[in-house]
Amino acid sequence: MRLLPALALAACAGGSSEPQDPTGRLLIEEVYYSGAVPAAGVDHYYSDQFVQIENTSRDVVGVGGLMIGDAAGIAGEINPGSLPDGFRDSRPNRVVLENVWRVPGAFADVTLEPGESLLIAHDGTNHQPMSTLDLTGASFETYVEVNGGDDDHPLVPNLEPVHFTGGYDWLVTVFGPSLVVLRPGAELMELDDGFWEYRTASVNDVVDGVDALMDGSSRAYKRLPDTVDAGFTHVSGTYTGESVKRVRVDGELQDSNDSSMDFEVGDPDPYGG
Ligand SMILES: [Ca+2]
Ligand SMILES: [Ca+2]
Ligand SMILES: [Ca+2]
Questions:
Q1: 2: exposed, middle or buried (C-beta count within 10 Å: 0-12, 13-18, 19+)?
Q2: What are the tens digits of pLDDT across the range 85-142?
Q3: Ligand showing the shortest atom-to-Cα distance for residue 266
Q4: Is-contact 175 233, C-beta < 8 A?
Q5: Which residues of 81-113 are buried (b: 16+ CB within 10 A; e: fewer)?
Q6: What's the CA-to-centroid distance between 81 and ligand 3, angstroms?
Q7: Rounded to the nearest whole angstrom, what is the distance from the C-alpha of residue 171 to the centroid of ligand 1?
Q8: Calpha distance 208→176 (Å, rounded)
Q9: Reduced to 3 states, what is the DSSP secondary structure of residue 9?
């Protein structure tokens, strides 16, 4: 990721290196959400969560204003008898999000070179020894100022909270979150179901999305419309240290809009493919 100084921006304005739209050029390469294997006396460590988004194109892509959010709904039958509560059936042309974060800056102020990735950390710090991961090299972290329980790591810039309904940090569920990346400028609409306030976006503004659920028999709990992700992925359990990673074929990331095919479980690899 590159934060362009103003002079460099002026020099390339109008040239062929002008940053391009993320649509069709960025893919979610990895989502690590399951939490760390118990270590150093800590059983439920999840501050090492991260999402990696890769520029798979040959173009420089503008990511200022790019948004990322997690879709509403439980990940599976977490408690006996708990039923699907997402919005997939009632709003097939929208994604309904509990939280939305945004890359700060104007569109062309933050860019990704071909093959470069945006690494978004729950906390941009070294998580060892509670986890194997060191996320001090993250592009951005989610920092929640309002509730006083999060740390602002000074070397890792913060995403902007657009809509935040969580507690002291953006904890995506360790049972399996459904994440979507929205193009800069995507119009968000409000939705209040009487219990919770959401933001929704058109599926046309989704750059990429992946449905992760509790286990292989949780299909009924899918949250995302088929046009965004026709399948779903999952790890073997919570606090397994497992990550879901996009399949690579001959070096290229595979994208069939079906994460049952496009994702596989592996070790977290925040700095590589
Ligand atoms: Ca944080
Ligand atoms: Ca920070
Ligand atoms: Ca990776």
A1: middle
A2: 999 999 999 999 999 999 999 999 999 999 999 999 999 999 999 999 999 999 999 9
A3: 3
A4: no
A5: eeebebbbeeeeebbbbbbbbbbebebbbbbbe
A6: 35
A7: 9
A8: 17
A9: helix
Confidence label for 208 from pLDDT (cuts 50, 70 and 90)? very high
| Lookup: tokens for 152 | 């602002």
Distance from the first to the final alpha carbon of the chain: 15
Q: Which ligand is nearest to the CA of 48?
A: 1
Q: Determine the number of helices (DSSP H) and then strands (DSSP E) in the chain.
A: 2, 18
42 C-alpha vs ligand 1 centroid, how far in Å?
18
How does residue 3 score in pLDDT terms, banded at 50, 70 and 90? low
Of 81, 71, 94, 77, the residue nearest 221 (C-alpha):
77
pLDDT computed for residue 17 by the predictor: 73
Q: How far is the CA of 85 from the centre of ligand 3 (A)?
A: 30
Global pTM reads: 0.94
Predicted pLDDT at 9: 47
Give the C-alpha separation, 239 to 35, whole Å.
4
